[in-house]
């Protein structure tokens, strides 16, 4: 879940001020800007979060999803079964997968305390279609967490994030394996229903490791 927290923090879009705009033409700047804005938004809305954890979904919807290519990710997750679905099924799967991501990231944000984010220097991306952005999450008393974001260039030359790699494991690849297996076993309609059910689950604050060990 800590991996999802990092994703929530580092690929969300900021809308805190009317004049603030994310530089979507530069994937490195995009990741950096949205990370900073997301942490600021979390701190700004702390009272609302404390009174109702579902407000985290609002933050995710407003700060994260505009800069996540969830349709591309949903299609990748469906894998070989994409061609076996109807246009209506694909649309409903994408919608369900988006909601599932919102709920997943909102739950992950319950773990946020006051982590710092450090970004590796940018590389030349002028001829690239996909770039990898290396990030470290710094938390006092713990080793740095090294992760990598993947972003893709869209047809209009803007960029969106679509995957997160932590400890050598791609979040997109792991979800593709999990969900494609479910589609094979239960069918696309059952998987859409399952994703919608997960979207509706209540956001709960998870106990800390220290509390759980007590």
UniProtKB/TrEMBL annotation:
PANTHER family: INTERMEMBRANE PHOSPHOLIPID TRANSPORT SYSTEM BINDING PROTEIN MLAC
Pfam families to which the protein is assigned, alphabetical: MlaC (PF05494)
Keywords: Signal
Organism domain of life: Bacteria
Signal peptide: 1-17
Positions of transmembrane segments: none
Name this protein carries in UniProt: ABC transporter substrate-binding protein
